Every structure is written in structure tokens, then in C-alpha cells.
Amino acid sequence: MLTIAQAEDRVATLIAQARKAGADAADALYVCDASTQVTVRLGQLEDVERSEGEDIGLRVFVGRRSASVSSSDLSADALAALVDRAVAMAREAPEDPWAGLAPADRLLAGDVPALESDDGADPSPAALRERALAAEEAARGVAGVTNSEGAGATAGRSVIALATSHGFTRGYATTGYSSSASVIAGEGLGMQRDYAYHSARHFADLEGAAAIGLRAGERAVARLNPGKLPSGAMPVVFDPRAGASLLGHFAGAITGAAVARRTSFLLGKLSEQIFAPGITIRDDPHRVRGLRSKPFDGEGLPTHPRDLIADGVLTTWLLDSASARQLDMAPTGHAVRGIGGAPGAGATNLYLAAGPLSPAELMADVKLGLYVTELIGQGVNPITGDYSRGASGFVIRDGQLAEPVAEITVAGNLVDMFRNITPASDLEFRRGVDVPTLRVEGLTIAGA
User: Fold this and answer.
1) CB neighbours (10 Å) of residue 176?
2) What is the chain's mean pLDDT, rounded?
3) Can you tell me the distance from the alpha carbon of 418 to that of 245, in angstroms, rounded to the nearest whole number?
4) Collapsing DSSP states into helix, strand and coil, what is residue 264?
5) First and final CA of the chain: distance in angstroms?
6) Domains of the chain (ranges plus CATH)?
7) 277 contacts 311 by C-beta, under 8 angstroms
8) Which of the four pLDDT bands, split at 50, 70 and 90, describes residue 1?
9) Most buried of 80, 111, 202, 262, CB within 10 angstroms?
10) Where are the alpha helices (DSSP H) in 40-198?
């Protein structure tokens, strides 16, 4: 694995070669990932995997024509061929009036925020194995758990470097760790499965393995003997694990590409009231040790925390440079990209701010409702906002969680759902997208 300085030198050299070969402009991205993964099942080691790979991608422009190529071979001969191929492809590509690098005057300059994204730790396979075994043991120790799908622990490190022909060259490194368990409760046709996991940038921040396993086991047992729920309109409460998907649909609807192509159910709603007054949705790429924190975006623009929803009002789209040009707006520092192809746009550490009520208070007045712990299927129309997904969870009866239910369909429209979301007070930062417990009024349940 290259150091950050070596990675920066590699992409800067590739840009110089592209300009020499006839490119009017270019950018290059280097990514190296190394990871160790250990899995166990039924108390026995099942697999140990170690992977390490590095890739480099080059995007060149000849006028308004562009092409992208990538390679996992970083030898001098391979990179020289990569440059020649990219320039030749660009000369034959169709013109794109919106294509181009990010504006030079908007690129990151000066110091970067201290994100603490790399802890420098390198846990051994033996340490990961002990963590995985402890998680599974705790899960299997829950009364009612009858089998295991396994438990795992992973450790990884990445180095990323980006350069553009405007003179930008920066890199950074991240580490990532995770621990998980998945178990089965019950017997025969009555079996139920569930899981738990935690991910962190610093190994020391990982939740205890026993706590993860215990949660997985308790969740699986709680789902045993599910019943049905009568069909009708009723309040639906999403636990944080399931509710985060609603923010994912929101983020997808405000990306520049969806807006520019007129394929978003939030089209035309910029600066309008989307959520109830008091609701805040914030994107925070500078969260210390955040899972998606980064100092610059996929085009070299500085990242900044910002409220995407402020007091319920939609304040911005998520724009890369191409979609910003198409919409006659400025890029917002949300460009995301892989090794190949042009950048798109997306959020980083996205969260919906907590409200004043506890989850119990949020449900206290619900005579009959549904508490969703898992969503199934992809029944969401990004153009209309129509929403219909399979769900399982628990009945809410007289303000209390009651028996488990499964094979439920939850339906509505995201525009209406967003207006009728009420957040609880239990927000925790555990994922890339975080929400507290959410209550949504007036959804249609198709049950028994």
C-alpha cells in the first residue's frame, strides 16, 4: 500500500502524462484498499480472508469530449498505455456541454479539518477471531436461539488520492472496523432470523462483541410466532435501523442528476416546506471519526457541514459540477465517484435531528399501529414518490409494543410521509445515515 504522499505523486504524474499526450484537462483518482475478515459459525473458525488491491482511474477531456479509463496495473508501461487509450477514446466521444472539471477557484486550498479517520491500528486475525467468537457466543446464549448464520469481524485501511490538471493534488487515509452476528431462533417453519452489527473508524470505538451478539439473539427471539395486523390506515413507527432508509430516499431525490433529468419526486420543491416545521436534516462530512467523513469531495472541492432541511424547508440540491452547470447553479461539494466514470453526487454523514419526545412518549397515544423493525423489497418510485414495501415488526396497542407481526405491506407516498414525520429523542450516530425512532402518520397497512 502506498503512503499518502506516494499516492499523491502517482496521480499527479498521471495528470502530467495526460496533458503531454494531448488532453486539455484531466483528473485522476487512486484508491488502495486492504482488509482482513474473519468469520466463525457454531463456535468454529469458518474463514479468514485477506485482500489488498489498488486501482487508478483517469478521466481526460479533449474540448467537451471526455473518456474515463482505469487500471489495477500501476506499472509504468500500463499507465502509459492507459493515458494513450484515454486520449484516443476522448477524441471519438460525443460532446457533452456540461462536462468538465470542477471550477479551479472552488478547489480545496489550505488546511483540512482534523477528522481522525485513520487510527493506525492493525488488529491481528487472532484478535478479530476472538471478537467474532464472543459475539456469536453471546447471541447463541440467548434462550430460544437454535442456530447461527455466523459472526464476523473485519479490519481495513484505505488510501485515497485525487489530482486534477487545475493543480489540485490531495490525499487521505481511512481505517474501518466492524463486528456482526446473525442467528436463528425457533424450529421448523417457525424459525426467525435477525442480526446486529456495528462499524467504526477507530478499533477502540467498536461496540463490545458480547453486546452486539446479545442484541442479535434478542431480536431473533422477539420475532418468533408472528401474527397479522388488520389492514387500514394507522400510525407507523420506524425503528432507527429501518427508518434510515427514508433518509436514503430523500437523499436520492435531491441529487443533481435526478433533478437535472427531471426524475425526482421533489422536483420544483427547492426552498419549499418538505418536512414539518422544526425538522432538521444535516449532512456532516466533518464529523470526527465519522464513517463517511472526508476533507474534499470527488472533484477536489472542500466539504462543509450543512442543513439540507432547515425548519422543514429544503435548502439545497446535492450537486457535482456537471449537474450544477446543467441547473445553472454552483457545485455543493457533494461529488462522489468510483475509479471509473464521471462523478455523481451524494451525501456523507447524513442524519435527521432528534425531537423532544422519547420513543415511549412518541407511541403513547397510538391505539393501534405498527412498529417496523425490518423492510423488504424495493417498492419505491423515485419519480412519483409512491412507496410500498414489505415489513415486519410489532403491533403497537394502546401505546405499548405487543406481539410480533410479519408479511405486512406499508404503503404511502414519500411527499406525504415526509410532511408527517415526527422524530423521537433517541438519535445515535452509528451508521452513515442515522435517524432516531420516527413516527409517520396515516400510512396504509395491508395485513390480514
Assistant:
1) 20
2) 96
3) 12
4) coil
5) 56
6) 4-220 (3.30.2290.10), 226-448 (no CATH)
7) yes
8) confident
9) 202
10) 76-92, 125-140
